[in-house]
Please model this.
Amino acid sequence: MTTERAASETGDPLLLTPGPLTTSKRVKEVTVHDWGSRDATFLRINDAVLARMRDVVHGGNEFVTVPMQGSGTFAVEAMLTTFVPREGRVLLLVNGAYGHRAKRICEIAGRQAVVHETPEDTPPNLAEVERLLASQPITHVFAVHCETTSGILNPIAEIAALAARHGKRLLIDAMSAFGALPLDARELAFDAVAASSNKCIEGIPGLGFVICRTTALAATAGNATTLTLDLHDQWRNFERTGQYRFTPPIHVIVSFHQALEEFLAEGGVAGRGGRYAENCRVLIDGMRALGFEPLLADRLQAPIIVTFRMPADPRFVFQAFYDKLKDRGYVIYPGKLTVAESFRIGCIGRLYPDQMRGAVAAIGDILREMGVSSLKPAKAAA
Ligand SMILES: *Cc1c(COP(=O)(O)O)cnc(C)c1O
Model:
C-alpha cells in the first residue's frame, strides 16, 4: 500500500514537536549569505530583533532584550544566575521537567531555592505559594508559563499578582508560550522573561533571549556565576559597543529577523496563538474521536503541545507507531517526559489545521494497520 507523505515547504517531514519545529522556507533561505559579526548591516538586523522581542511583551522603554547564545536553557540559566544574587532565595514553582531543570541550575550555582512542587497535571497551589511568600525570606519567584513537559498552562497572571503583593521579583520561563500566549508587561509585573529562537516565533535554533526590566538588570552587577552567562555584562557591552562579547550565531539571528517579520504579518500573538489554538482543537477533537485520552483537563491545556495517555493494548507499540507516523511525514516527540505513561504531539511551528487533520487521519490508518482495538490507558485517568 502506498501512502501519501506529508511534507513541509522544503519537503521535510512535519515536526509535531515542541521545538525545534517546522519553519518556513524563507526563514531558512535568508541564511545563504555571510556577514561579519561587527558588520553594521548585521548589527542593524540584530537591533531590530532585540527591539521586536521587547515589543512582543509590550516592554516599552522600561525593558531591554539581552540575547544569549545557545539554546533556551542557556537563557534560563543566565536569567536565574544573573538575577538571583548569592544572598537571595528563589521560590521555584515546579510541575514538570523545566521546573526541575531550574532547580538543578540553582543547585549548581549555589543559589538558595525553595521548591513548591505539584504533579505534572496540576497547577501550583496558590494558597500554598502565598503561605511560602509570607513565611520565608524569598526574594524571587520563578515560574514556567507553559510547562512543555505536559503542555499545562500555569496561571502566570495570578502568580505575578501574588509575587507583586508580597514584594517579590518574578522571573518567567516563557519559552514554549512566547509569541503564542499573551504576556503583557503593562498588565503583570516581572523582572525578566526567557524565550528562544526555535519555538513559537518559528525561527531556527541557536539563540536565547531574556527580556529584562532595565532597573532590575542594572542592579545585578557581580551576581553572575559564569562569564558567558552574565546578562549584565552582555547588556553593558551592547550599551558600550552595540556588539556581542563573543561570536553570535549570525545566521540564526538573520533568520530570526525573517521569522519575526512573518510573525508580525500573521498578526503577532493574536494571529499566531489563534492558529495554534485551532491546530490544538483539531488535534484533540480528532484524537478523542479515535479514542485517545489527553492527560490534561481542557481548562489546563495550553495550545502548544498535547500529552496523550499511552493505550494499554499490547498491540499499540509506541516505537512502531512513531516509525509509521514518520513514514507518513509526521514526526512526533519520540519519548515521554511525564511521569505518567504517555506520548506528546506538538501543535506549534509552520503547521496548519489541515495538516493536523492529516496527522489525525494518518494516526487512524496506523491504528487499523496495527490492529489496535482499544485506546484505553492502563490506569483510569487520575
Ligand atoms: C524548550 C524549553 C526550554 C529550553 O529548552 P532547550 O532545549 O534548551 O531549548 C525551557 N523551558 C521550556 C518551558 C521549554 O519549553
Observations:
- The chain has a mean pLDDT of 96.
- Residues 130 and 168 are 11 Å apart (CA to CA).
- The chain has two domains: 14-22+267-372, 26-265.
- The pocket of pyridoxal-5'-phosphate is lined by residues 18-19, 71-73, 76, 98, 144, 148, 173, 175-176, 196 (CB under 6 Å).
